[in-house]
Amino acid sequence: MEKIRNNIKSVFIATFLGSAALIWYLVFYFxxxxxxxxxxxxxxxxxxxxxxxxxxxxxxxxGPDEKILSKLGRRMPFWxxxxxxxxxxxxxxxxxTGLLEVVKRYDVGMILETKVNYTTPEYEEWRRLLKKxxxxxxxxxxxxxxRMAPNAYVDILAPRENFAGGSPGNVHDAMxxxxxxxxxxxxxxxxxxxxxxEYKLVFFEGARLGSDILKVGHHGSKTSTTEDFLRTVSPKIxxxxxxxxxxxxxxxxxxxxxxxxxxxxxxxxDEKGDxxxxxxxxxxxxx
Length: 287
Ligand SMILES: [Zn+2]
Ligand SMILES: [Zn+2]
What we know:
The protein is of the alpha/beta class. It is built from eight helices and 15 strands. The longest helix has 33 residues, at 2-34.
């Protein structure tokens, strides 16, 4: 008798936990349909940014390893195995390696990348995988617009040239830089863009760079976040994606000081873990 009672109790608890998990998923799923959710994942030393709106999902870079899979697993409902768009900002392993795992396990609608010439085992595997899976690839170039909803879109601001098959001296100079617009709110996503790209962006885009959020270039390295660029973007919040005690010393104190001098609120993945932002189209909230 006692055994039966215990069994009933376990079934009850399991059902309760199961329904709680399902409700949690549903709340999350429908919330993502109204607000734009913008998450900078803590993937250690690397970049991975996830955008969700109205059931559409965009993943920008995948970090240095398979950590991205558990991060996505927590953000996406279990039945959802489809990501609308992957953007590979550039082929460095701290941005690319996680995407290899994502492409292996998820269906992907489209890939936006530069197709720059680069020879590393990860990038060669990437090329092989995309061919095998026959995924649509679009070569990124300034002027393209990816629409997520009538009032939400991603504007590609760099590179200005078509780098497919090209071999720039520094692969960071062929960076995909994108500005995310949702109603009146915006975020500038710079990948590992360095001074040259920042200079071009200020030169060609000027005040159009203005954004609420700046995903700081190159993990807060002093190769990036120049004074002119910062003045033009004029963000309220800066997000730095860098690993705890990483061997590069990112983010650089000089960059942190500059951001503070400009009155920008700095959030770092090495201190806060995943950084989740939400926008209702008017205001941006930090969760
Ligand atoms: Zn990087
Ligand atoms: Zn890089």
